[in-house]
Every structure is written in C-alpha cells, then in structure tokens.
Amino acid sequence: MENRVIEINVQKKLVSAHGTMLLHIKASICQGELAVLFGESGAGKTTLLRMIAGLTSPDSGVIKVGDSIWFHSDVNINKTPQQRNIGFVFQDYALFPNMSVYENIIFGQKQKNKAHALDLINKFGLAEFTHRMPEKLSGGQKQRVALARALARKPDFLLLDEPLSALDSNFRTSLQNEILKAHSITNATTLLVSHDLTEVFRLAQKVIKIENGKITAIGKPDDIFLNNQISGKVQITGNIVKIQKQDTFYLLTVVTGMNQIVKVTAYDNEIHDLAEGDKIMVFSKAFNPLIMKVQN
After folding, report:
1. Which residues, 6 or more positions from 103, have their beta carbon under 8 angstroms from its beta carbon?
2. Which of 47, 49, 63 lies closest to 12, judged by CA?
3. First-residue to last-residue Cα distance in the chain
4. Is the pLDDT score of 84 beyond 60?
5. Residue 287 confidence (pLDDT) above 70
6. Please, what are the domains in the chain?
7. Where are the beta strands (DSSP E) in 94-235?
8. Which long-range contacts (CB under 8 A, 24 or more apart) does 10-13 make?
9. 91-123 pLDDT, tens per residue?
10. Among the listed ranges 79-88, 204-213, 244-253, which one has the minimum average pLDDT value?
11. Residue 210 and residue 39: Cα distance in Å, rounded?
C-alpha cells in the first residue's frame, strides 16, 4: 500500500438518552499507526468508527484516504465497506454461529486462500479449535477468531470497537498482546475504540480523545493523560502498563482501579519478576514507595 493518510472531517447529528448531540470530527491518521479513539460511553467513538468503515453515513463532510475519496457529501461519493478494504472487529465479535473457526476465517477473504487462513489460525493459537463452532469457544477464543477473520482479507485498515470490553480482566493483558500481534502482522493502520486507560497505555501510538462529539486532545498517551494526573498517593493497587529503563533504575507507569495514572521508580531487586500487565501494590515505608506484586 502506498503511503496514505486518512483525512477525516465529518459531521453527524446523534440522538441519545441525554438529547441531541452534534458529532463533529476533524483529524488525520497516518499509515501504519495504532490509534485509540478514547472517551466515555456516548461520546461518539463507535459512530466515528462506523463512518470510517462505511457502515454509517455522515450527514456531511469528507473522508479521504491518500488520493482516494471514500465519502464526500458535496459530490455524492459514499464507497461501500467492501470498497474500503477494512477489517472490522465488533464488540460482540459477530461470528457466524453456523460456521466453524476455519469457515469463519476463510469467509473473511475476498479470494479464498486456504493456506493463508490456516496460517492465521496457527498465528493466533487456534489450531486445536479449527473445526469448533463459536458456541463452544470462550470469550478470548472468539476474540482471536474475530481478529483472524478481520485480517484474512489483508486489510489496509483494521477497526476495533471495544473488543475487550466483555472480557474478564484476567484475559485482558494476553488479548491486548493479540491486538498488537494483529497490528504487526500486516502493519495495517489500526483504530481501536476504548475508554480503558490500561488499554490506551499498552496499545496506543496516538490517542484521539473525544468528548461530547468533539475532539478535545490528540497526541501520545503520556502527553494527554500524565500532565495533571500524576498522583502523590503511594498506597494503591494497579496494573503496570509500561516499564522504561533509565540509567540506574526503572520507571513504571501504573493505572489504578480508579483510572488514575501513577509513575513509580523501581530498582533491579524489585523489577526482576515484574512485567507489563502485572497487578502490583505500591505502598510507603519511611516515605519511600515500595512495590509488591499481587497474585491473582
């Protein structure tokens, strides 16, 4: 795929339980980026994703990818989802219940390629479930099938609508790794809808923060969320989302259960059994923060 940037400038009137809201989004996303659409429920994230996919039409505006116009209200252009070469993973995965894992995945291909389908099955650790029906799969297995099916068509753009929201927290870390794997397999431009800060810090190269239908911030997770939210509290439990090696110590970014972000320093004797995704407790002793891993 040639170097292409998604340029979005769209408007759509939405009706919610809180009344009418105008969704007005103007943003650009570069080829190969993993960008997260972040915001509370009802902010307009999923509607934006569906407009990019061609599943929902804006009231007005333009969606342009490189030199290709996907939507333009003034000249009546509105390409179908099939013409946009996207892979879409829905919140409920939307697997075909009467098809096996293999049949679901190969169905996603524009031109049937058994070898490619089997390769995706192996890459996502689904070989033992190849002929199993969706009703016999766990939530995590369904999510992997949905990712594999979305990648089967070799999409230029991978769109993920809160794919982890229905899963137990114990599965989230491993399945965040599956999303990173899905992104890296094809280097598709990836847009993920989320309102979970742990996912944002683990996955996002760029965050597009949306509130009440408007973009309020665009940038890297650290730039958007850390400036005013670093807490001095040292009696917390949270998940490690980033481990950064400094000269003589490590800097841990921790997201608490209250969606608060904390930076904590750690040393070799504290870090040896810690990894991104681990749940830890940070507490104080003589004014120095100490770190203890929490067993699930």
Report:
1. 96
2. 47
3. 43
4. yes
5. no
6. 5-225 (3.40.50.300), 236-293 (2.40.50.140)
7. 157-161, 189-194, 206-211, 214-219
8. 10/48, 10/51, 10/58, 10/60, 10/61, 10/62, 10/63, 10/71, 11/58, 11/59, 11/60, 11/61, 12/47, 12/51, 12/56, 12/58, 12/59, 13/59
9. 888 899 999 999 999 997 877 888 999 999 998
10. 244-253
11. 5
Q: Judge whether residue 248 has pLDDT over 50.
A: yes
Structure tokens at 226: 């850390």
How many other C-beta atoms lie within 10 A of the C-beta of residue 192? 26
Other C-beta atoms lying within 10 Å of the C-beta of residue 216: 13
Of the candidates 75, 43, 77, 57, the residue with the CA atom closest to the CA atom of residue 10: 57
The Cα angle at residue 177 between residues 174 and 183, in degrees rounded to 5 = 150
Task: Report the alpha-carbon distance of residue 112 to residue 109 in Å, rounded.
Answer: 6
Cβ proximity of 66 and 42 under 8 Å? no
For 67, phi and psi rounded to 5 degrees?
A: -95, 0
Q: What's the average model confidence in pLDDT over 17-36?
A: 90
CB 101 within 8 A of CB 109: no
Tokens of 243: 């481990």
Whole-model pTM: value is 0.74
